[in-house]
């Protein structure tokens, strides 16, 4: 499909401005500088507030029209964002994450232990990121899941075309009539700050906001307080007959099923990661993360395919 033309020009202040420190840190950074007379450059409280507000709301204003929205910044959503953002610097990619801390379940391995297991051949993504691992033959182990997630997060956020809005929940999907297919097409997301989204039962009429994009990628994980969001919404909106519901743990069946099942599940909506297990009724894999990486990467290629068609 031909993507909707994005006519808005980016707000000039969104262009990244990286200024060198007036004095190179190396030259000045000696122990004496920290000995009782440490001095900061002056600042006013108003400057701090305006520094944040201007950038946050300029970004929000700009990203109301995005090229791709990724819902969920877990291992699948972030792998997708990195691959898509680095392959296609021309696309405006907006990640919406409900939690304050992005990363989903990828800060730990299994049972709150820190090493992260990744089955081959997904280890090639670690080399692309520059994350070290121990090679165990059929699989590799990263010493701490947080090393993987923090590296992926920092490399993704460093891409100038990628924006992350965390503490922001997708509350609904924008679903338009699609004259081309005579059916319906997902064309954006409905957002609210998560603390607002969690309080609809206690306060009245806290209406949301919207972000439109020709391609939405849902990576909200398996069912939970927020998880499987789009899969569940597709059912209630009549775009999916019923949820498949995640099946029991079987690593060898689960990982290929998630990667091979990564696809455009409804017009305009690609699904990746463990959310697919709820959509399709596939097994869970427990604490092996190769499928999350490979599914995210495949979702990026799917997005490019749709965008270019
Ligand atoms: O906060 C959620 C998490 O960070 C976010 N999210 C969910 N609903 C959202 C919404 N709006 C915005 N409505 C939302 N954000 O999505 C992220 C999902 O990350 P995850 O780590 O839960 O999912 P994943 O598919 O990236 O990784 C799954 C990892 C698992 S679970 C599992 C098992 O249970 O067997 N095995 C693996 C490897």
TrEMBL record:
EC number(s) on file: 2.4.2.60
InterPro entries given in the database record: FAD/NAD-bd_sf (IPR036188), Sti35 (IPR027495), Thi4_fam (IPR002922)
Domain of life: Eukaryota
Keywords: Cytoplasm, Iron, Metal-binding, NAD, Nucleus, Thiamine biosynthesis, Transferase
2,3-didehydroalanine (Cys), modified sites: 205
Subunit structure: Homooctamer.
Record-stated family: Belongs to the THI4 family.
Record-given protein name: Thiamine thiazole synthase
Annotated source species: Leucocoprinus leucothites
